[in-house]
Design goal:
By secondary structure, the chain is of the alpha/beta class. It has helices at 16-29, 44-54, 62-86, 97-107, 112-123, 138-150, 165-181, 195-212; strands at residues 4-9, 34-38, 90-94, 130-135, 186-190. Bound molecules: adenosine-5'-diphosphate (ADP).
């Protein structure tokens, strides 16, 4: 049986991880078998790559960055995603291949054909069944990331968060372009709303999606 692969995309501070957690807990409460993961860092090897990739002190060459994300993804796909999906599980991933198109393609300026080749190699062709794009202005997301830092909710800004505003603007535009090119797969969520409003919107998209696939559990457990 095939599971369902749902990815969460958007610029830093757009609220993805908050929404992944909330959706995972709703699905689990209904007894669904959910795998909550992220890129980079969804596997033990990936966690070590994540540390290096996001380290604000690290000088990472753009090509090395592209290939390290690809290495993280190759490990993620083969060790975690493919087996989980083959076992019929519902996989929620905080970022996946669209992030490379947006960050390394539009952000760093690598040729789309090279980026696509690297993605195809790393993923072996695995595509998300559904992608939620959390769209937020660069100014608002920067403000959220700063608040997260000052409230001690997370470690200080990572290497990519520290990029200039126009870098994040290119990334945001690239995400929107992906959504326009693949409207069936990629659904845009207005990430400027409150956490609860966004969560409700996420459920409005995800429940019918799972129902259509016969993967929505009708009854609560307990
Ligand atoms: P991301 O994973 O996209 O970087 P997070 O989910 O970590 O974003 O959220 C970034 C910060 O913004 C956190 O401090 C989080 O509590 C806060 N946040 C998340 N969603 C919202 C929202 N809808 N409105 C206001 N603040 C939010």
């Amino acid at each position: 049986m095939n599971g369902a692969f749902i990815t969460f995309e958007g610029i830093d501070g757009s609220g993805k991880s908050t929404q992944v957690r909330m959706l995972a807990s709703v699905l689990r409460l209904r007894g669904m078998d959910v795998v909550q993961t992220r890129e980079p860092g969804g596997t033990p090897l990936g966690a070590r790559l994540r540390e290096a990739l996001l380290d604000a002190q690290e000088q990472v060459d753009p090509l090395a960055e592209l290939l390290l994300y690809a290495a993280d993804r190759a490990q993620h796909v083969r060790v975690l995603l493919n087996p989980a999906l083959a076992a019929g599980r519902i996989v929620l991933s905080d970022r996946y291949a669209d992030a490379t198109v947006a960050y390394q393609g539009a952000g760093r300026g690598f040729e789309p054909s090279l980026v696509n080749e690297v993605i195809a190699l790393a993923t072996g062709g695995l595509k998300p069944d559904l992608t939620l794009l959390f769209d937020l202005s660069v100014a608002a997301s920067g403000e959220r990331s700063r608040q997260r830092t000052t409230t001690g909710e997370a470690t200080p800004s990572d290497r990519l968060e520290l990029e200039a505003e126009n870098f994040h603007a290119r990334v945001r535009d690239a995400y929107l372009q992906i959504a326009r090119a693949e409207p069936e797969r990629v659904r845009i969520v207005d990430a400027s709303l409150s956490v609860e409003e966004i969560h409700a919107h996420v459920l409005e998209i995800v429940i019918p999606f799972l129902e259509n696939r016969g993967q929505w559990t009708q009854t609560k457990t307990q």
